[in-house]
Amino acid sequence: MKQPTQKKTELLLLEDVRNLGRKGELASAKPGFIRNYLLPQKKAVIADNRTIRMQEKLLEERAKQAVVDKKESEELAAKLKEKTFSTLVKNDSQGHLYGSVTVADIVKILEEQEGINIDRKHVIMPKPIKSLGVFEVELRLKEDIPATFKLKVEGETKVEAPKTRAEVIEEGEETLAAEGDSVEGEGEDLPIRSEREKEMKEELEERTKE
Question: Which pTM was predicted?
Answer without folding.
Answer: 0.61
